[in-house]
Amino acid sequence: MPSSFDPQALPVLGIDDHLPAIDAAQLQPDALRRRFAAPPDWTPEIAVERRFTSREPTHASVLVPLVLRDELTVLLTQRTDHLNDHPGQISFPGGRAEPSDADAIATALREAEEEIGLHARHIDVLGSLPTYTTGTGFIVTPVVALIEPPFTIAPDPFEVAEAFEVPLAFLMSPANHRRHGVEVAGVRREFLSMPWQSVQGEPPRRYFIWGATAMMLRNFYRFLAA
Asked: Which of 16, 56, 100, 145 has its Cα between 20 and 30 A from that of 71?
């Protein structure tokens, strides 16, 4: 989405607390493995954003890293402010496909190592979700994986301002999903946000998860809820 507005300044049009949260039992590693091994019949809530660029579509992958803590967390990054695409936004580790990549999973693993230093030996891929096409022209394959601690990360300072973890249960509860709308260049655009307040740090940080990252998480919710 274009950066000509501040998404955090827009009013909340609705909160999806009428939808049930994913049960804790379904968020266990073995349950997730079973779900990907025998996926349900389901449809992503949104698969394609309205385009606001004329450039050629580009294939990309992101890693949706589920860290094996006492309760699963999602490892996310905050992009640096100077990047051309989605500057300053919260995202999954990932990037565009290269000709040398064997497939979308290979792209996600390579990008995760290049972007945050997460080595493939810690990554147990569960499967992929359907592609999500961003308004900036990226056709993104979300690759969902379990991440085995202990591991260290070394974020690329050019691309990543920060890496942090959010409880998966928080993100899989629509009571934390907020709806917003804005008109850009005469076109109405709607998006989700999932603001999360960290309990660590002094003062605690607030992270505004929105846009494509929030929608891929919402599609993950739909996959688990189906």
From this structure: 16
